[in-house]
Structures are given as C-alpha cells and as structure tokens.
Amino acid sequence: MKRLHFYLTFGLFLGLLLVFGLVRVSIPKAGVFWAQASLDGPFRLFDPKTHQAEYEHLRTYIQAQQKKLGQDFVANDTSRKIHILSEARHFLRQTLFEELVPFWLDTEWDYNGTTEMPRQGTIACGYFVSTLLLHLGFSFDKYRLSQMPSSEMIKQLCHLPSIKTIYKNDFQALLHHLHQQEDGVFFDWAGQTRRPGFQTSFSAPLCARPQTPPRRCD
Q1: Tally of domains within the chain
Q2: What does the pLDDT read at residue 44?
Q3: Taking the alpha carbons of 93, 97, 98, 100 in that order, is the dihedral positive or negative?
Q4: Residue 22 maps to a domain
Q5: 39 pLDDT above the threshold of 50
Q6: Integer Cα distance of 25 and 205 in angstroms
Q7: Is the pTM here over 0.85, yes or no?
Q8: Would 158 be classed as within a structural domain?
Q9: How far apart are CA 126 and CA 143, in angstroms?
Q10: What pairs with residue 164 in β-bridges?
C-alpha cells in the first residue's frame, strides 16, 4: 500500500511538472526532447534535430525567393521594378518576424554568444541581429558588424537620414515617433546597456534584451 501511495504521489508530481514547466525526456535512439506545455494548445515535443532541419529548409526557401525576386527585377521595366521592390520589402519584413524570429525564441543570451543555429548554444544581441540579417539574404562581415557599438551598427545598416536619435531617455518622444511610423524593419538601441534589437511596428514590437532570450514584447 505504501508503494502504491508513493507511485500515485510521484505520478501526480510529474503531471504537475508537465503542466507548469518543462520536463526533459530521454527517448532511446531518438535523441533528447523537451515536453513543453502551452496555455493555448496541447503538449508538443521539441526535437533539436527537427528544429535544425526545418530552419535549414527555411533558409533554402529564402535563398530561392531572393534569387527569383532578383531575376524578376532585372528582367522588367521601371514601373514593374517599383512593384517588385515593394514585394521584396514585404517579403523581408514578413519572413524576418513571422518565419525566422520564432525559431530563435528561447535561445539563451550570452555576452560572448555567437551561435548560428537557434536554440543551440548562446547568442549575444549584436550577433542576433547580424545572424538573422545574414540568414535573410544580406551580405556583410558578420563578425565585424556584430562587434561594433550599437550606434555604429545602425549607421552601417541604415541610410543616415532615416536614423532618429532621442536624447535623455525621453520615452514619450519615442512613443510619439513610433506612432508615426508605418510597419517595417527597424533597428534600435536604447538605455544605458546600448544593446541593439529589432522592431517591426509600434503595435507588435520585438525585443532582444540583455541577458534574456529574444521574445515578443506583449
């Protein structure tokens, strides 16, 4: 009877762990998985190998779309080129925030992190920004850009007239400026930490904050 009581208690405890947290499960010959509870859906198993394969598939798709857009741009007249540029901007913003970034959620932050694979290893803020841009199809020296001060990184990535500087932590001025912007891809750095990050719009900002995994700010 005592043994039965122990098993029932242990089973209840394990069930609570599954509901309120994460349980590491080792499955023979199948690698290491994470059973994760979700408030808006059923339990799901996280498989690092599947995650990596899906991410590589996404990168291949991005490269194919980039090539197609480039070929269409070269082959068409000026009026059509304007439409293709608009299509490319939409593809860039949507792919970055709705496809690439979700793969990186829960990736651990570290000041010296340089991983190129989401949820494997650690990533620093500057490397997070530069790595995602590389995987989005941009071409630059990742290590040189990532090691720049955030303000210099922004100058390298953006046209100077598009850069807005707000002094003395004037958050009201910042909010006013954000309200005036259309949806797009913005690079920002703020506060004493001077950490770079992405933002897509005022209504759905994205954070890459020091010492925390990249996440949505909602």
Answers
A1: 1
A2: 60
A3: positive
A4: no
A5: no
A6: 34
A7: no
A8: yes
A9: 9
A10: none
